[in-house]
Design goal:
Elements (H helix, E strand, L loop, with lengths): L6 E6 L2 E6 L4 E3 L4 E2 H19 L5 E4 L9 E3 L12 E5 L9 E5 L4 H9 L2 E6 L2 E3 L5 E13 L5 H17 L5 E4 L5 E10 L1 H18 L4 E2 L11 E4 L9 E2 L11 E2 L2 E2 L1 H5 L6 E2 H11 L17
Parallel strand pairs: 14-15
Antiparallel strand pairs: 1-2, 3-4, 5-6, 5-9, 7-8, 9-16, 10-11, 11-13, 11-15, 12-13, 12-18, 17-19
Helix pairs in contact: 1-2, 1-6
Length: 304
């Protein structure tokens, strides 16, 4: 491994990149270095990139590691290579008083490696894609974020996920499931393109229905005061301004965890835990991308 301050030139596909500080530790608890982060994203790229392609990217960067300062970044950073794909989109309600933002669209491996070199550990995407001529298309995914309020945990999320899956299947949808890499888990159902307002309304109605059916376990309200011991079904992830962590993205936590797609059999066995980046790589070797078929165009169903 090069000296911490050394930079190296590498060729990634047809692009030349300058990588720096490869031995800098970004996960202090486990001693994971920036070089290892770049290796992770290089190896996971074949299954990750399909879930980033065509989507406006938001990153969370940890320049001094997970124990240091972090910041969200939507706008393309200064000094970005000219070949990084960007798209200018409106950002209504921006806290930075900006009407538009130049977002990154991470469609290829060189962009992914470049982002990893910036310590962009977390990659988040919306539920819609960019149009072929710019602008925003309708939502093509329906997402539910299951967030447990202590002492509830991942296994309580699994119980809710199974009930939510059944409700979605009743409506003709085909959800897939993954851990968040943090505390909870997420369900995603591929849908035919729909107006974002309609997806939010449907998701809210379904969350409220589950709350009525499982009042001791489920809450659909955002207020943290009502979440203790329950699982919050966050339906608001379907708002066009919101993003959700991408499948296979790392998380900037003390542990080296990643958002990991799951088999539904794993969800029902009652022994879930968040998986490490190393475990995710091993699962890809054995299972490939569990989301590949489920999120294909052929799997998309109309929203009820």
């Amino acid at each position: 491994m090069p000296d911490k301050s050394e930079t190296v030139l590498v060729k990634v596909e047809n692009r030349q990149l300058r990588l720096s500080n490869l031995s800098k530790v970004l996960y202090p608890q486990e001693g994971i270095t920036k070089g290892e982060i770049i290796e992770y994203y290089t190896r996971v790229a074949p299954v990750l990139l399909p879930h980033l392609t065509g989507r406006a990217l938001t990153t969370i960067r940890f320049p001094n590691g997970t124990s240091g300062h972090k910041f969200f970044e939507k706008n393309v950073p200064r000094g970005a290579p000219s070949w990084v794909r960007t798209v200018r989109l409106p950002v209504p309600g921006s806290t930075m008083k900006r009407d538009e933002i130049d977002y990154i669209v991470a469609d290829d491996l060189p962009t992914l490696v470049w982002l990893a070199n910036l310590a962009a550990l977390e990659l988040h995407v919306p539920q819609w894609r960019v149009g072929p001529r710019g602008g925003v298309r309708g939502a093509d995914q329906l997402v539910f974020d299951l967030d447990p309020g202590p002492p509830a945990g991942l296994n309580e999320c699994a119980t809710v996920a199974i009930q939510l899956r059944a409700a979605l299947q009743e409506d003709g949808l085909k959800p897939v499931v993954k851990t968040s890499g943090s505390k909870g888990m997420q369900l995603t159902a591929p849908i035919e393109e729909s107006p974002p307002g309609r997806t939010s309304d449907y998701a809210k109605t379904l969350a409220e229905r589950l709350e009525a059916e499982l009042p001791k376990l489920v809450v659909s309200q955002m207020a943290k005061a009502v979440r203790a011991g329950k699982v919050f079904i966050d339906w608001s992830q379907n708002n066009p301004a919101k993003t959700t962590v991408a499948p296979y993205s790392l998380r900037g936590k003390d542990a080296f965890t990643a958002s990991a797609p799951l088999h539904w059999d794993e969800v029902s066995d009652g022994h879930l835990r968040q998986l490490t980046g190393s475990e995710v790589l091993a699962r890809i070797e054995s299972d490939g991308d569990l989301y590949a078929d489920a999120l294909s165009d052929a799997a998309r169903s109309p929203l009820p």
